[in-house]
UniProtKB/TrEMBL annotation:
<keyword id="KW-0479">Metal-binding</keyword>
<dbReference type="InterPro" id="IPR001723">
    <property type="entry name" value="Nuclear_hrmn_rcpt"/>
</dbReference>
<keyword id="KW-0804">Transcription</keyword>
<dbReference type="Pfam" id="PF00104">
    <property type="entry name" value="Hormone_recep"/>
</dbReference>
<keyword id="KW-0675">Receptor</keyword>
<dbReference type="GO" id="GO:0008270">
    <property type="term" value="F:zinc ion binding"/>
</dbReference>
<dbReference type="GO" id="GO:0003700">
    <property type="term" value="F:DNA-binding transcription factor activity"/>
</dbReference>
<dbReference type="GO" id="GO:0000978">
    <property type="term" value="F:RNA polymerase II cis-regulatory region sequence-specific DNA binding"/>
</dbReference>
<feature type="compositionally biased region" description="Low complexity">
    <location>
        <begin position="125"/>
        <end position="134"/>
    </location>
</feature>
<dbReference type="InterPro" id="IPR035500">
    <property type="entry name" value="NHR-like_dom_sf"/>
</dbReference>
<dbReference type="InterPro" id="IPR001628">
    <property type="entry name" value="Znf_hrmn_rcpt"/>
</dbReference>
<keyword id="KW-0863">Zinc-finger</keyword>
<feature type="domain" description="NR LBD">
    <location>
        <begin position="172"/>
        <end position="411"/>
    </location>
</feature>
<feature type="compositionally biased region" description="Low complexity">
    <location>
        <begin position="427"/>
        <end position="442"/>
    </location>
</feature>
<dbReference type="GO" id="GO:0005634">
    <property type="term" value="C:nucleus"/>
</dbReference>
<protein>
    <submittedName>
        <fullName>Uncharacterized protein</fullName>
    </submittedName>
</protein>
<keyword id="KW-0805">Transcription regulation</keyword>
Amino acid sequence: MFEQTTTTSYTSYSIPIAREGSIMDLCDGVCMVCGDRSAGKHYGVMACYGCKGFFRRTIRSGQNYSCRFQQKCSIDKDQRNACRFCRFQRCLNVGMEPDAIRPDRDIIGKQKNPRRKKLKREDSSLPSPGSDSPSPHEDVLVTFLVDVELQSMGGPAARTPLPIGIQRIKSEPDMDISSLFSNRYAYENEAYEMGYSVDRVATVEQLASALRRYLFATVHWIEALSSLAQIENVAEKVSILKSVFAPYTILCQAARTAQFSRDMDLICLCNRTTIPRQPPRHLLETNLLSNNLVPRMLDDLVAPMRKLSLSEAEIVVLSALVVLDPDSPGLSETSSNSLSQVRDRVQNALFQLIRENSSALQHVTSRFGNILLLLPPLAKLSSLVGENVQFARMFGGSLDPLLVELFADNTSEVIPSPSTRERMDVSTQTYSSTSPSLPSDLSEIHEDVPACTEPTRPAPVLPTVNPQMSYHPFYFSGQQFQMQQAVSYASSQSYTQPSFFDSTTTPTQFRFM
């Protein structure tokens, strides 16, 4: 049985995907319900004989349980019989399928394991990507991925409840992205147990805390999957992190929202707070939710996930597919190929997972395709996250240095200085004839753009004035007053050039100011 600890070495989970068949060297796995030794996959998940039989008896007899302790009982191999309500809810939460229990085939005590497996091999005629028959290798791989997810979220070993108050971000001056991979203890105190609720709207501090917690979870996933792909270079892990942090974060928020909430107008965060469809002003002012990010997440991801009713195992496998990005910039060809091989095996595991819970070919292929169709909108939303972070850097307040480093082109520039923020504040700008300096990424706009020349304008035509007429500075009589009106009107129609517009200013610069 895998040992559930807060800091886990992934050497015991090493799966050299490149060599076929070596996956069988792994141990049998753990029960996703109670953590005991697994007896294989039952009703869609890895489960022990005890939890398998308990789930089957509950469904077949149609029993209803109740909990005496606010539905928060601990379910492990030593206390799994203490509360049947919480144990059954745990079975459902990890993805056990009630529909997989068939009265005509699943008769208690009448069928041995070898015979059932033999009948399954003979009756099943469904093809799978890359293999002719169901492979036990995928079962072990899914078990490994579920265990990684449990540990990244805090897992059963995390006994400290999440504080109700605002989570403080404890930024260390010397902490950067590389240190997250080289020193796992650097963020151990901040990696609180992730949980989801719909009771409170997030504050700015809680939003920042949730983003940092998703960052730590992404690092945990990359460490685990890099061991499968045999990637040890820290720089390559950082490249993967920069590429997959945004899609992994969006996927977690959308999947857990669809799983734990039926409200169509809010997003659940990992620190038991929410973001409504129309975020309050204090969250909008951070600019991290610009570009209608929340409504698009709800409509493009959460709604389809609710229709699919993704199981826990399907969410975990989909998360692994997102993290396994072989096209991350900065990867060597060898590392990219290794990630591609692992991703192919995970994708095949997803197909086998769906196949285990259905006997109809049309349903299996349709569900498999619909789950993969979640990835394109996920990619679009991820690009919005990067844009919003850059937008927040220019016009928002101080950001988490780790978050800035993830999306910054120049990693040395972490947080703008006060003078830089003042220059970016429109309310403090003054017009000047000196051309402003544009950011480096806008320098190409100057190419082939003609300079704006000074506009020509006709001289105003003034009426003839009698030089012998005396003019009083305040009092005008008759004709003199009419002439003064004509002069004033002609002067008002003349074009006055702004002081900040000169011959060296391009149209692009004028818009930028």
